[in-house]
Amino acid sequence: MITKRIKQLRNKFNQFDIDGYIIPKNDEFFSEYAAINRLKIISNFSGSAGLAIVLRKNNYLFVDGRYTIQAQQQSGKQFKIIEIHKFLPHKIIKNLTLGFDPSLLTRKQLNAYCGNSLTLKQIDKNLIDEIYKEKISKTKTFYSLNNKVAGETFKSKINRIRNILKSNKADYLFISAPENVAWVLNIRGSDNPNSPIPNCRLIIGKDKGLFLITQKEKASKIIKNKKLSKKQIISSEKFEDLIKKLKGNKFIIDPLSCSVINENIIKSKFQIINIDDPCYKLKSIKNSSEIKHMINAHIEDGVALTKFIYWIKNINKKKITEIDSQNKLEKFRQLNKNYLFPSFNTIAGTGPNAALPHYIASKKSNKTIKKSDIFLCDSGGQYKFGTTDVTRTICFSKQKNSIKDIFTKVLKGHIAVATTNLKKFNTGKKVDARARQFLKKDGLDYAHGTGHGVGFFSNVHEGPQSITKINTVKLEKGMIVSNEPGYYKKGHYGIRIENLVYIKKINKKLQFENLTLAPIEKDLINFNLLTNREKNYLFEYHLDVYSKISKFLNNNERKWLASLI
Question: Do 258 and 300 sit in the same domain of this protein?
Fold first, then answer.
């Protein structure tokens, strides 16, 4: 099937006088979890990030370190797999003309990928859609969050943004990232799997002017409750006409999410100010209401997770597969009336499958969970007014000391992050080093970041905050990040321990506070490698888990959880 589609795509190269075609993972809204996945259509690769380039004779798939093994398994027969952080496309492909869809790529991406060694040709129709068009179900209308839940009115947020516009001497801000529009207007939607984000864009003027770029029928509810008027709803087809009518000189656009086609439309009349959308920073700092609701969502999620862990540790594994396990976890979550849907596709891998950091079980790869294996489960949920993400590594029998030692060093890294002095280690880069230090002593490491930002009832991945080797964004009160060091032995096993944490101020000191409430596997710990401080942390964490969720468990679950304290 993939071979046939590649051939069909190549057949169009002469028509457009190109030597190859660029296929990004994202859709025109630059969503991580989009309803349409053109990259998978052409390459069979199902990871959350990647870029394909199909040439007349060769095909390349560029992915980051998380996905090299997965990409090789899914796409290695038709594509050469390249780790993008080591080799950008223009380092490998030279002196060719590549076609691209201007609605799917930003100027910043094109400059990074293609440099000066490639000629780019804009093609105003998507060539993947020409050969195969995914069916997209009709989506529902957008809806508003209650102001008490959001913790701030949309008018207050707009006023803050207008002050930023004035300080930058700009007339307008083009908010091209839908998650930022959702935050500003306190709205949500159903356009994307795993995320309550409505596909739309927004223009905010420095003094007046507010325009939502979407279909009028999708905005019917927010028009009805008088958040916006009909005149303020502009279809995508009328976007260019709107830009021509606006008065002023300077427009702020976001280099991370403003497509080439929209940049060109705005640039035809306005001077461009290319800076990161200020909404990224503003929404990264959660207010007290958002934190309160996130805490409640994690209590509810903790109940489902604890029930699941008890179940899988006590069930007969002879007939339980990876897919069975993730279906069971989903059922535990569905017992809660506030649960909506997964915040991402569940990663449930046993044995060698767990060595793939972002493994997704399929009918072909699905393994029966063996008693002798260790099992990794990374999952999350979208609850009414809360987003969760948690990973636990579980065992079912006595494991080798070598595996227990590795797990313990990952745990020590996890605890080091959780107990960080954020006055001293105030960036993701500084915190990341703390997580890796115990593995590093043995010459070991992991290819992904230690933590990503998390949205409030929004995307499970958000910036600018993160815990990585390169992130220098200052960590501030109210930010939420994941704490997830790991280790992966190819062909054997994978280990990861993930909690979500938020930054809290106590006695003028900033510190991480756990949101996630789920027991950590004690049968995989070599306690001889833990300090007294680390043992106390583990005791206090399990005591906290018990105190907050035990009343929602049955007697057997409660007794088991108590035994872990």
Answer: no
3-state SS record for 135-167: CCCCCCCCEECCHHHHCCCHHHHHHHHHHHHHH
On the CB side of 163, CA atoms within 13 Å amount to 7
* ∠ CA 398-529-309, rounded to 5°: 45
Domain check: are 166 and 119 in the same one?
Answer: no
> Is the domain of 458 the same as that of 394?
yes
- Say what the pLDDT of residue 506 is: 87
pLDDT at 137: 67
In DSSP notation, 470-536 reads S--PBP-TT-EEEE--EEEETTTEEEE-BEEEEEEEETTEEEEEE-------GGG--GGGS-HHHHH
pLDDT score recorded for residue 427: 96
Q: How deeply is 523 buried, as exposed, middle or buried, from its count of CB atoms within 10 A (0-12, 13-18, 19+)?
A: middle
Residue 200 belongs to domain with CATH number: 3.40.350.10
23-39 pLDDT, tens digit per residue, is: 999 999 998 888 889 99
169 and 109 belong to one structural domain: no
Helix (H/G/I), strand (E/B), else coil: 538: helix
Q: Are residues 122 and 19 in the same domain?
A: yes
Average pLDDT, the chain: 94
Q: Are residues 86 and 125 in the same domain?
A: yes
The backbone torsions φ and ψ at residue 120, rounded to the nearest 5 degrees and listed phi first, read -110, 140
DSSP string, 77-106: TTSEEEETTT--HHHH--S-EEEE-TTS-B
Find the mean pLDDT for residues 530-550. 98
Quick: pLDDT tens for 209-235.
Answer: 999 999 999 999 998 888 899 999 999
Nearest alpha-carbon partner for 100 in 20, 6, 5, 9: 20
Contact 496, 484 (CB under 8 A): yes
Question: Which residue type sits at 443?
Answer: G
* Number of CB atoms found within 10 A of residue 207's CB: 9
**313 is in which domain, residue-wise?**
285-563
**Closest of 47, 32, 41, 40 to residue 343, by C-alpha:** 32
What is the tens place of the pLDDT at every residue in 146-175? 999 999 999 999 999 999 999 999 999 999
Q: Of 101, 131, 161, which one is at a domain's C-terminal end? A: 131
CB 405 within 8 A of CB 529: yes
Once rounded to an integer, what is the mean pLDDT over residues 445-468? 96
Q: Are residues 154 and 60 in the same domain?
A: no
pLDDT at 301: 98
**pLDDT surpasses 90 at 494:** yes
Q: pLDDT by residue (tens digit) across 270-329?
A: 999 999 999 999 999 999 999 999 999 999 999 999 999 999 999 876 789 999 999 999
Q: Provide φ and ψ at 274, rounded to 5°.
A: -95, 90
Which of these, 63, 69, 40, 41, lies nearest to 50 by C-alpha position? 63
Amino acid present at 402: S
User: Rounded distance, CA 329 to CA 339, Å?
Assistant: 12
Over range 54-68, report the average pLDDT: 90
- Is residue 134 predicted with pLDDT exceeding 80? no
